[in-house]
Structures are given as structure tokens and as C-alpha cells.
Design brief:
heterodimer; A: mainly alpha; MetI-like fold; 79% helix; flat; B: 246 residues; mainly alpha
């Protein structure tokens, strides 16, 4: 069977895919903001003095981490309306991505928090700082910068999971490519372009992440 | 990162049995969904096992080529690893399912699922294997050279048995990722657990029961993988000096 790459078709669909990729980027960014914030909350809850809060948080994190994101997306999209919370596809998708990756991020934060020397906590108590002030002004500023590269890895991972939103018909890159392909019966160009798009972005962000790591190392190298 | 005290497992078991009990009591209708879902779970398990075999083989080959291959072999391994880590699993699945036929290669959905997911996880696994092999102390190589072992002998009898222990926990995580990834094969018409869930949902509209049950079933499968990998780790680290391998 002869195979040809159709350049005319490629140029025709490129702007449409470009527009759809904005939806992908939007989902990535909003999802990651949610993941970063919620992940920190999970990590802090896991440090709670109350044993039950620690256990429940751990159980929730383990549960979310062990089940497929696709089913979680379906769950939010199809099940939540039965409890009176109707979400549109994009919101459900962003929520699912955010919550799923919050669980991964909480592990990263936990590593960062564990690495803050114990003396810092004791010094904060000696200075009579409130628990909130201790976290806000002493612990978190030291815990987060070293784990930023690890967090950025999860940003890339989340970005690569956004095609799952096509399962609930969010018009992001993959769904748009599939629609284009089924209209023209030319699958090669749209799907390959989507693959290339992800590849390019992943390679760029991997390089950026390495730079960030090197920069953080030089900045914190002395103290750590 | 994966170091979990024993209570965690107890908590999970507790929560799980609670949920299961709740489910059985509240929704006796689960009985009518379970057979269909179990059939789906069987496909999920098959794809996971097949994918795991492909992943381990691909990872081993890629890691060996990347470390000891010729220039061309190294290039090929890096290309494979970067492409499969850099694009998303769903895109790879769709590409193999929709685009490969245009090259004259038409595969069964099951084959596509196993291949795509296996190769995807294998790309991550290759780096795990490489990291594990490189984490073995240089002195081991030097000692093997001093004992006049060949490179292949050293790798096979000295380095790999030690590296094996180091790479079990990350492989456990990868197998869980693989299990979660198998849900994607529902999008290429393969009748796995996720597919059956959507089908039942469309037919009966009993959304809460179906999706809760499916989540619990995935959790059970993941826990089986976790405990199998724990057992394997215990077995493999027998006889090794503790602390060295971790």
C-alpha cells in the first residue's frame, strides 16, 4: 500500500489544531494550579497532629493514585450530577486532572517538608511563632524551592494526560484531531501532528526543567 | 518516596472493606453488574500482563542498547525512549490503531493495546533499569575485572542480580501506571473494565453504582500488584547485605 503525507491537508488543519491546542494548554495550566495548591494541602494534612486526619488523607491519596484517571474523569462527569453537582465537560476534566495530580504532588511536597531540618521547627517554637506563621514564613519557603524540578515533571506528565479529556468530548487537541480525521478519512496527518506537538513540548519542558534544576542548585548549593 | 509504613496498608484495607460493605448493603443491584464487569476485568488483566511483558522486554533491550550499544544502537534507544516518553499514551494508542493501517499494518485492538501500553511503560522502564545498573558500586566491576570475568559475565552474574533488587520498587510503580493505563484501551473498542462500565452506564443509567464498583475493582487490582511486588522484593533481597541495595 502506498503511503503519502498530504501537505495541503496538513496546512489546512494546522490552524484548527493550533486553536485546539490552546484548550489543551488551558486545561494543563488550570489543572496544574489546582494540583499544586491541593497537593500542598494534602501534604500538610498528612502532617496533622490528629492521627485520623493523617490516615484518611493517606487513604484518599492512595485510592486516587491507584485508580485510572479516565475512570475518575467519568466519575466526576457522570456521577456528580446525581449528587446535584453538574459540571460541564471542561470543568470536570480540569478538576479530575487537578485532583489526580495533587496526589502525586503531595508526595513531592512531603519530601520537601521532610527535608527541612528539625531545628527550624524548634526555633519557630522558641520564637513563639504560631503554627500558621511557622509554616507560612519558615517551613514552606525552605521546603518548596528544592522540589520545584520534581513538580515541573508532574506538570509535563499532566500535560500529556490532557488527551484523556477527549473521552468526555472536551474539544481539546486529540478530540479535534479525531473529528478532523473522521471527516476527511485521513488519520495519518492529524494524529501524527498531535503526537509531534506533545513530543516538542515535552522535549522543550524537559530542557527547561534541567535548567531550572541547575539554577536552583547553584542558588541553594551553599546552604544544602 | 514509595516507603510506606505498614499502617498505610491497613488503612487501605479498612477503607476498602468499608466501601465494599457499604456497596453490598446499599446496592444489592451490584450483583447484576458484577458478572459483566468481571468479564471486563479479565480483559484488563490480560492487557496488563501482556503489556508488562512487552514493557520489561522493551526496557531491557533499550537500556542495554543505550548503555553498551554501538553509536547507532544508542541513537535508536534514545529515539525510542524520548518518543515514547514525550508523547502521551493515548496518542500512541490512537496512532497505532488509526495510522498504522495506512502503512499496511492492521493489528487487532488487543495487540495494539498491549503493544502501545507496553512500549510506553517500557520507555520509562528503560531509564529505571539504566539507573539501577549505574547505581551499583564501581568497585563491583573492578573486582569482577580482577577476577578475570568477562563483561557479559560480570553484567549477568554480578551486576544484574544486585541491580534487580534496586529496580523492583520503581517497576512496581510502573506496573500500577500500566494497570491505570489499560483503561485507555476502552477508547479503541476493546471490552475492558472501563469499556464495560461505560456500556453498562449507557444501558442502565445506574451511574453511581457502576463507577464506584469499577473504581474499587481497579483499586483491588492495584493492591494485588503492590503486594506481589513486595513479596518479590523480599525474595530478591534475601542474602544481600541490607542497606547496600537500597
Amino acid at each position: 500500500m502506498m503511503f503519502e503525507w498530504d501537505w495541503n491537508y496538513t496546512w489546512e488543519i494546522l490552524p484548527i489544531l493550533g486553536e485546539a491546542s490552546l484548550v489543551t494548554l488551558q486545561a494543563t495550566l488550570l489543572g496544574f494550579v489546582l494540583a499544586a495548591v491541593l497537593g500542598l494541602a494534602f501534604a500538610l494534612l498528612r502532617m496533622s497532629r490528629l492521627v485520623y486526619i493523617r490516615w484518611i488523607t493517606t487513604a484518599i491519596i492512595e485510592f486516587i493514585r491507584s485508580t485510572p484517571l479516565l475512570i475518575q474523569i467519568f466519575f466526576l462527569y457522570y456521577v456528580m450530577p446525581e449528587f446535584g453537582l453538574t459540571l460541564d465537560a471542561m470543568t470536570a476534566g480540569i478538576l479530575a486532572l487537578g485532583v489526580h495530580y495533587a496526589c502525586y504532588c503531595s508526595e513531592v511536597y512531603r519530601a520537601g517538608l521532610d527535608n527541612v531540618p528539625k531545628g527550624q521547627w524548634e526555633a519557630a517554637i522558641a520564637l513563639n511563632l504560631s503554627p500558621y506563621a511557622t509554616l507560612r514564613n519558615v517551613i514552606i519557603p525552605q521546603a518548596i524551592p528544592p522540589v520545584v524540578p520534581a513538580l515541573s515533571n508532574y506538570l509535563v506528565a499532566l500535560f500529556k494526560e490532557t488527551p484523556l479529556l477527549s473521552a468526555i468530548a472536551v474539544l481539546e487537541l486529540m478530540q479535534t484531531a479525531k473529528i478532523l480525521a473522521s471527516e476527511s478519512f485521513q488519520y495519518t496527518e492529524p494524529i501524527t501532528l498531535v503526537g509531534l506537538y506533545f513530543l516538542v513540548f515535552s522535549l522543550i519542558s524537559a530542557a527547561l526543567s534541567r535548567q531550572l534544576e541547575a539554577w536552583l542548585n547553584t542558588r541553594h548549593g551553599g546552604s544544602r | 518516596m514509595q516507603e510506606k509504613p505498614i499502617q498505610h496498608r491497613l488503612v487501605i484495607v479498612g477503607i476498602l472493606s468499608l466501601m465494599a460493605g457499604f456497596a453490598v448493603v446499599t446496592y444489592s443491584s451490584f450483583r447484576e453488574f458484577l458478572p459483566e464487569l468481571l468479564r471486563g476485568a479479565l480483559v484488563t488483566i490480560q492487557v496488563t500482563l501482556g503489556g508488562a511483558m512487552v514493557a520489561v522486554a522493551a526496557a531491557l533491550i533499550a537500556a542495554v542498547f543505550k548503555m553498551y550499544g554501538s553509536l547507532f544502537g544508542r541513537w535508536l534507544a534514545i529515539f525510542y525512549i524520548e518518543v515514547f516518553r514525550g508523547t502521551s499514551a493515548l496518542v500512541q494508542l490512537f496512532w497505532m490503531f488509526f495510522v498504522l493501517p495506512y502503512f499496511g499494518i492492521t493489528l487487532e485492538p488487543f495487540t495494539v493495546g498491549v503493544l502501545a501500553l507496553g512500549l510506553n511503560i517500557g520507555a520509562y522502564g528503560a531509564e529505571v533499569i539504566r539507573g539501577a545498573i549505574q547505581s551499583i558500586d564501581k568497585g563491583q566491576w573492578e573486582a569482577a575485572t580482577a577476577l578475570n570475568l568477562s563483561r557479559m559475565q560480570t553484567l549477568r552474574r554480578i551486576i544484574l542480580p544486585q541491580a534487580f533488587v534496586v529496580m523492583i520498587p520503581p517497576w512496581g510503580n510502573l506496573f500500577i501506571e500500566l494497570l491505570k493505563g489499560t483503561a485507555l484501551v476502552s477508547m479503541i473498542t476493546l471490552g475492558d473494565l472501563a469499556f464495560k462500565a461505560q456500556q453498562l452506564n449507557q444501558n442502565t443509567l445506574r451511574t453511581v453504582e457502576i463507577f464506584s464498583l469499577v473504581l474499587i475493582m481497579y483499586l483491588c487490582l492495584a493492591m494485588i500488584i503492590t503486594s506481589l511486588m513486595r513479596a518479590l522484593e523480599r525474595r530478591a533481597s534475601r542474602g544481600l547485605v541490607r542497606g547496600r541495595a537500597s
